[in-house]
What does this fold into?
Amino acid sequence: MSDRRYWNPKWECAPKSDLRALQLEKLRRSVAWAVAKSPFHRRLYEEAGVGVDDLKTLDDIRRLPFMTREDWMASQAEKPFFGDVLTASREHAIRYHLTSGTSGRQPLRVLDGGKDWQWISECWAYGFWGFGVRPEDTVFFAFSYGSFIGFWGAHYCCEKIGALTIPSGNMTTENRVRQLVEMEATTVCATPTYAIRLALEAEKQGLDLPGSSVNKLIVSGEPAGSIPAMKRLLEEKWGAKCADTAGMTELGTIMMFECAEQPGGAHIIEDHFIEEVLDPETDDPVSYGEMGERVVTSFGRGMIPVIRYRTKDLVVKVPHDHCSCGRTFDIFEGGIQGRVDDMLLIRGTNVYPRAVEAIVREYDEVDEFQIVAWRREDAIDELTVKVEFVAGFTGDRSGTLSTLAADLKRNHEGLRINVEEAAEGSLPRFELKAKRLIDRRNQG
Amino acid sequence: MSDQPTDLLGRPVNAEEAELLELYGRIKALASAEGLAPCVEKNLHFAACALAQAATDLGLAFEHF
It folds into this structure.
C-alpha cells in the first residue's frame, strides 16, 4: 500500500470534465440539504430567489448568494451560541471549536457531528498521503490540542493512515524537541513560526535536528509556510522537506495541500471543494494566473453548510499541469498570498486592526496610535501598539500602558501584544483614509 | 430499467464498488434499528460514517445524516 502515490487515485487524477460533473452534482445536493435543514441558508436563498433547480451547470453557482462571515456572526449574535446555520441540534454534535478571530470581538463557534469528523480527517489524508506520510511514519504533533481546531483533523488523519501518532499537547518546547528526537519522529507538524522556535530550542540543547530521523515537516496555520524564504529556512534548520497546507475553522479542515513534487503551490482538493477566485471589487471570476479572493464551497461539513463563503483570502489559481505529480487538481500558486482586509496573523492568532482600534479608542487619554507588526531575529512575529497620549495628560501613563496591554491580550486569546508610548506629535496624522498599520515582517 | 447501481455521474459501478454501496446501505439501516444496545448502535453509526466517507470518496454516494 505504501507505494501507492495517491490517497484517492480515482478523483485526484480524474479528467477535468468528470471532476466538474461531480462538483455540480455535489453542489446541487449540498444546496438541497442546506435549504431543507438550515434556517440561515433557507432564508439566504429565499431572499435571493434561487434554488436547486437553478443549478444546471457549474457556472450557475454564481446565481447563489455569498455566505459571509459577517452574516454568520450576526446570526450567532442574534441566536447565541451558534446562530441558525446548523442543520441539526447540538445533541447531534460531538465536538465544539471556535476561531481565534477577533473581528467584532466575537469568535466564530462551530459544531461538528461524527460523520463530519470522518470527512475532516479525510481531507487531511489527501495532503499527508500526497506529501509522503505512510503507515511506517512516526508523526509528532507540536500542537496544543485546545479549542482551536488546528491540527486536530491531521491527528485523526494519521491514525486513519496507520502512522504512529505522538501528541504533545502538554509538553514544553524543551520537552517536545527532546521527545521528537528520542522517539525518532519522521514527520513533525507545527505552525511555521513554532517550527522555527523548535529548531532554535534544539540548537540550544545541542540536538542535531538535521541529523535526526525527521524527514518531513508539515506546517499549517500561517501563510508563512508558502513563503520561499521561510520554507528554505525551515528546511535548512530541520534537514527535512517542508510542505504547506491551508485550512480554516469555517471549513473544519484543509482545502489545499502541497504534494511531494512541491510545485510552488498547493493543490485544491477539488472533489471535496469548489474554489472560485473572484475580483473582490466586481465579484467577477478572474482568469488563471490573476490574483483574486477565494470563495469556497465545501461538500463535507453536514452540520454547517458552507456554500460560496467569502474567505477574503487572496490567491492565484493556476492549472494542474503546473505540477508534474499527475493530479488534475488545480493549484493555488504560493498558497494564501494575502488578505482582502488587513487581518494580521500573529503567532497563530488573528488580529484585526479594527478590533485593536476599538479597544484603544476606549482610552480617552490616548490621542493617536499605530500598530506595528515586526519579526524578531528568531522569526517569531510580534505586534507593538504605539500610543500617543493627549497633550497635557497628567495621569498615570505607565498604568494606562499596562491596562491597555492586558485589555488587548484578553481580547486576543492571550496573545501578548506590546504597548509602548510614542513621543507627542511623533505619529502621523491623517486627513483622509488613515493608515495606522505598519507591517515590517517581510522587510529586509 | 436496470437494477445495476451507478455512481454519482450515472455510470455503472464495478463489483467492489457495488459491494461497498450495498454494505454501506445495510450498515446504515442496521444502525437505525430500534432497541439496539448502545455498544452496537454507536459502533454501527461509527462504521456507517466511515463507509459513507469511502463511498463519497469514490463518487458512489453523497449524503449527510
Notes: The mean pLDDT of chain A is 92. The first helix of chain A runs from residue 9 to 12. Chain A touches chain B at residues 8, 10-11, 18, 21-22, 25-26, 29, 33, 87, 114-115, 117-119, 122, 271, 299-300, 302 (CB under 8 Å).
